[in-house]
UniProtKB/TrEMBL annotation, chain A:
It is found in: Cytoplasm. This is Phosphoribosylformylglycinamidine synthase subunit PurS. The keyword Cytoplasm applies. It comes from Variibacter gotjawalensis. Pathway: Purine metabolism; IMP biosynthesis via de novo pathway; 5-amino-1-(5-phospho-D-ribosyl)imidazole from N(2)-formyl-N(1)-(5-phospho-D-ribosyl)glycinamide: step 1/2.
UniProtKB/TrEMBL annotation, chain B:
Part of the FGAM synthase complex composed of 1 PurL, 1 PurQ and 2 PurS subunits. The active site is at 87 (nucleophile), 204, 206. SUPFAM superfamilies: Class I glutamine amidotransferase-like (SSF52317). This is Phosphoribosylformylglycinamidine synthase subunit PurQ. GO terms for cellular component: cytoplasm. The lineage of its organism: Bacteria, Pseudomonadati, Pseudomonadota, Alphaproteobacteria, Hyphomicrobiales. It is found in: Cytoplasm. The gene is purQ. It holds the Pfam family GATase_5. It comes from the Bacteria. Keywords: ATP-binding, Cytoplasm, Glutamine amidotransferase, Hydrolase, Ligase, Nucleotide-binding, Purine biosynthesis. It catalyses: L-glutamine + H2O = L-glutamate + NH4(+); N(2)-formyl-N(1)-(5-phospho-beta-D-ribosyl)glycinamide + L-glutamine + ATP + H2O = 2-formamido-N(1)-(5-O-phospho-beta-D-ribosyl)acetamidine + L-glutamate + ADP + phosphate + H(+).
Length: 79, 233
């Protein structure tokens, strides 16, 4: 099974990388960009076909390592 | 004083730490591999040196914080042993939960590599007793992610319990935004744990311990730890 964990900074957290990208897009003349927040995507191949089990494992992975839940939110999606 | 310096893949300041400990504390530190699950017996101080453990992949310090040696470091800290995390070591301490808060990208979006002013906030910790409270020292920094952030409740607790050890400041101890080189909340450069036995610090005191380095301002930090351990013995 293919799964995806998306990690993003919580909305209240300053994102200097996103700000730098936002500034670069503006200087490149790309119109209509209001703001940019950047994050990370983990594409994970899960063994077996049990969706509930996979979801539990992915949540554990995110809580233990993939995200720092002090500053980041995450979302788990299984195809 | 028996000290151990932990070597992670990507650490690059471990030799500076070893040299400073040898020079100021007068004994040879042991270098411990991150895959080891025990510290040398009788270790008084563990140093997590600066560098780029695991290439800063995922988040600075995140992978190192979950390595086998960190369980031993946690046990050592719980038993009241000294732990000093410098730069990447500070990031590892925050990622491992031994210190609260996180180190974010520098707010100014620039890697900072220079000598900064630091104000000693509380001289009543093993890591600051070598100085006077309010004293300004000059120490080098080299980091891209040293912007310390914590929620309001944590910050109040740190302030109230005297756990802010060092702040970025001007030549006379001024806490102005222009001296806060990475945008850290309350200009925080270093904090200690609840029991005051764990210090996380972004600047590199190990790089100002000899005249040839341009300053010996960092010696006080090592001398203070030595005094603390000698008195406890």
């Amino acid at each position: 099974m293919k799964a995806r964990v998306t990690v993003t900074l919580k909305p209240s957290i300053l994102d200097p990388q996103g700000k730098a990208i936002e500034g670069a897009l503006k200087s490149l003349g790309v119109g209509g960009i209001a703001s940019v927040r950047q994050g990370k995507i983990f594409e994970i191949e899960v063994e077996g076909g049990d969706k509930a089990k996979a979801e539990a494992a992915l949540k554990q992975a995110a809580d233990k390592l993939l995200a720092n839940t002090v500053i980041e939110n995450y979302r788990v999606e299984i195809e | 004083m028996k000290s151990a310096v932990v070597l992670f893949p990507g650490s690059n300041r471990e030799r500076d730490a070893v040299r400073a400990l040898r020079l100021v504390c007068g004994s040879e530190p042991k270098v411990v591999w991150h895959g080891d699950s025990e510290l040398p017996s009788g270790t008084d101080l563990v140093v997590l040196p600066g560098g780029f453990s695991y290439g800063d992949y995922l988040r600075c310090g995140a992978i190192a914080a979950r390595s086998p040696v960190m369980d031993a470091v946690r046990k050592h800290a719980d038993a009241g042993g000294l732990v000093l995390g410098i730069c990447n070591g500070f990031q590892i301490l925050c990622e491992s939960g031994l210190l609260p808060g996180v180190l974010m990208r520098n707010a100014q979006m620039r890697f900072q590599c220079r000598v900064v002013g630091l104000r000693v906030e509380n001289s009543d910790t093993p890591f600051t007793r070598g100085y006077n409270a309010g004293q300004v020292i000059h120490i080098p920094v080299a980091h891209g992610e040293g912007n310390y952030e914590a929620d309001a409740e944590t910050l109040t607790r740190l302030e109230g319990d005297g756990r802010i050890a060092y702040r970025y400041c001007g030549p006379n101890g001024e806490l102005e935004p222009k001296y806060n080189i990475n945008g850290a909340i309350a200009s925080i450069a270093g904090i200690v744990s609840e029991k005051h036995n764990v210090l996380g610090l972004m600047p590199h005191p190990e790089n100002h311990v000899e005249e040839q380095m341009g300053s010996t301002d960092g010696r006080g930090l090592f001398a203070g730890m030595l005094e603390h351990v000698s008195r406890a013995a």
